[in-house]
Amino acid sequence: MTTDVNCWIGPYPFRYVPHPDPDVLVRVLARERIGSAWVGHLPSAFYRDPIPGNDALYAALEPHRAVLRPTPVVRPDWPKWEGMLRQALERGAPAVRAYPPQWGMGPHEPSMHALAAACAEAGVALLLAVRFEDLRQRHWMDSAGDLTAAHVRSIARSSPGVRVVVACAGREMIEEVHWGLTPDEQARVWWDISWIWGPPEDHLAHLFRTIGAGRFVFGTGWPMRLTQNPRANLDLLPDELRGVPMADGAEIAAGGGQRAHGD
Amino acid sequence: MSDSANGEPAPPLAGAAPLIDVHAHFFHAGCGRRDWQAVNAARMRAGDRIGITCHVASILGSMGHTSPTYFASPPDVSRGNDEMLAIQRREGARVRSYVHVNPNFGDHALAEIERCAAAGAVGIKLSASRRADDRLVDPVAEQAAARGFPVLHHIWQWRRKEWGNQEASDGAELGRLAERHPGASFILAHIGGGGDYRHTFAAVRELPNVYLDLSGSGVDRGMLDDALAAVGPSRLLWGCDITMCTGLAKLRALEVIGLSPEDMALVRWRNAVRIFPPGTFPSVQGGADAGDRRAHASVVGGAR
Description:
The complex is a heterodimer.
Chain A: E1 3-9, H1 22-31, E2 36-41, H2 51-61, E3 68-70, H3 82-90, E4 95-98, H4 110-122, E5 125-129, H5 149-158, E6 164-167, H6 171-178, H7 183-186, E7 189-192, H8 203-210, E8 216-217, H9 228-235, H10 249-254
Parallel strand pairs in A: 1-2, 2-3, 4-5, 5-6, 6-7, 7-8
Helix pairs in contact in A: 4-5, 5-6
Chain B: E1 20-25, H1 36-50, E2 54-58, H2 74-91, E3 95-101, H3 106-118, E4 123-126, H4 138-147, E5 151-153, H5 171-180, E6 186-188, H6 197-204, E7 210-213, H7 223-231, E8 236-237, H8 244-257, H9 261-275, H10 290-300
Parallel strand pairs in B: 1-2, 2-3, 3-4, 4-5, 5-6, 6-7, 7-8
């Protein structure tokens, strides 16, 4: 059953988001026939110290552990950050999240490379988000900007074992990254489809044809975005592409085979 | 449309009830895109799969190729309108045309309205080349009221600065135009098209001749609920603009919200039938009753 790799719980600092609660998410997933979700803690993207947010995430998801998989934050420029990664592994996280733009990190930040290497060694995926909201509607205090293609290329190249999942990217960025990586590097990067346009521009169809559906995973962006959007996009693919298998979050999570604490 | 396993045509993804997209665009050979025909074909293909009864569309000049999309030159405006009307003639009831006008060229704009109305246009696409509340736009709005043509206008939800390549307006600015012309209907474009839609809702809540189209790539959770709360289902119009996946997603979300079948019909097609000229949608017109038009007449007749 489908895994949604792009969910959060908790409020968003720049606008009201309706009921971003884990029990609501569980009901939404059931309604949309989505088996499980990788879930982050939305406010943590804007905290300096992510540890309290991670603690809140673990506690909130505990009653729903069969469906909601925690994807906590690991901030690699924080003292003793390795403890955050260790805790994530102990909690069975399928991936850990990092937010370089929100932390003021450029594309070639050494600590991000260290995190990538640690994730590779631990066999856990690294989950990045390009954006939370459309650039056209940013709050004036939200000055972080989008994750850039250069960030993703740099992280993917930094460690031969790192597996990177990028959420909320559009066609232009995906192509800029994909065709700027070696085949081996390309094979370790996956893209969620939550922000890719369907017809009439048919960006998703184009990417499936040129890059391959195997590089893409299902993601919604809940609670920021309508859960119905990626499914609608898949339903509107041209006939020859409809039903083409994408990658699956569960397989990506298991892909490393080196995890200290498997699920 | 795809066939199902038993050879029958697959049912439309959004159901068999009428569905009118009030915000569509097409391209032509002079738009500078080699794939223009493929993009047009993709709109019709996706429209069939969704179950769109009619695409109400415009071509904005050369779509940026020989003059800017939102500041199209008069020759480009006319060429785009000609090409749009040609698509309407070719596609029959599946496509209806807005006449696109650049209000900076007032005489040309009025002449285009006259010319294209005679050729079958059913509404006006007002270019974002002049602020909506500028007095220069008044003659266009007067023509709209006289002809019963709704005016679709590109809106930046809460415009807080000048954005490049357009002189965008926001809900408050379009609202001032709508207040001056209570006899015309205004379609406030794409609440999902960028900016702060909650500002728009507050700005136009009390303006009964402003209708909100749901199009745009934005699919924020809460946006549809807030739009319904602000203006109710009788002032929402379904549309896609340049992302049809988000259009389908919003239809599905409206079902989850729990709109009654009657309210869903308003959003899907009945409101459009009400505000466009009689006879615009022959394939669904039979389902509209005279009460729809009487209700509309009481709104745009200057009730405010």
